[in-house]
Amino acid sequence: MSRTVKLILMGALMLALAAGAALAAAPLICPSGGGLCVGTPEADTITGSGNVDQIFALEGEDFVDGWGGNDLIYANEDADTLRGAEGSDVLRGNSGNDSIDAFSFDTAGSTDQIFGGGGNDEILAEDGNVDSIDCGAGLLDRAFMDPTKDTVTGCELVSSSGEVQADAMKSLSQETKAMGATR
Ligand SMILES: [Ca+2]
Ligand SMILES: [Ca+2]
Ligand SMILES: [Ca+2]
Ligand SMILES: [Ca+2]
Q: How far does residue 60's CA lie from ligand 1's centre (Å)?
């Protein structure tokens, strides 16, 4: 093997290791009693408790599921995937193209507050509950909502079609599966 080829291979290996390190934050399970739960600056998979969690995912492309309780989920920059699930949750995507699911596993009668922040976000909230949706900045935010119940601001594309929502749920579900974080 030539010296040049060896150098190229070594460079490729180092790049692969660096990429692996960026993706390899260990899955984080929040304390069972709820409360403060803080991720890392890398890509995290964070699972909330059945109680009230305050989850700060920090930087990185994070996946967060709040599970039960009225949770606060706060994601920083980068494209995050957030799921409020049971209870009345506050979900903040901040900058980055985020996928925010306030639909799956939601509790009947709960009220979620969703803030997409900067970037082009996809927000799912067509669940028959009264939710507040703020898509924030970005020129191509999409929200799937209940037209007679939800309050919506800053969303360029709004839909309440079950068929369209099914497509969105499928794509989000595939994304979630790809991150190894399905329930
Ligand atoms: Ca993170
Ligand atoms: Ca929780
Ligand atoms: Ca919820
Ligand atoms: Ca965003």
A: 4
Helices (H), 78-141: none
pTM over 0.70: yes
pLDDT tens digits along 34-59: 999 999 999 999 999 999 999 999 99
Q: Would you give the DSSP letter of residue 70?
A: S
CA of 120 to the centre of ligand 4 (A): 6
Task: Convert the pLDDT of each residue in 85-123 to its tens digit.
Answer: 999 999 999 999 999 999 999 999 999 999 999 999 999
Range in 21-25, 109-113, 139-143 the model is least confident about: 21-25
95 CA to centre of ligand 2 in angstroms:
23
Task: List residues, by chain if needed, whose CB lies under 5 Å from ion ligand 2.
Answer: 48, 53, 66-67, 69, 71
Neighbours of 121 (CB within 10 A): 32
Cα–Cα distance measured from residue 75 to residue 58, given in angstroms and rounded to the nearest whole number? 6
Nearest ligand for residue 93 CA = 4
* Burial of 169: CB neighbours in 10 Å, binned 0-12, 13-18, 19+: middle
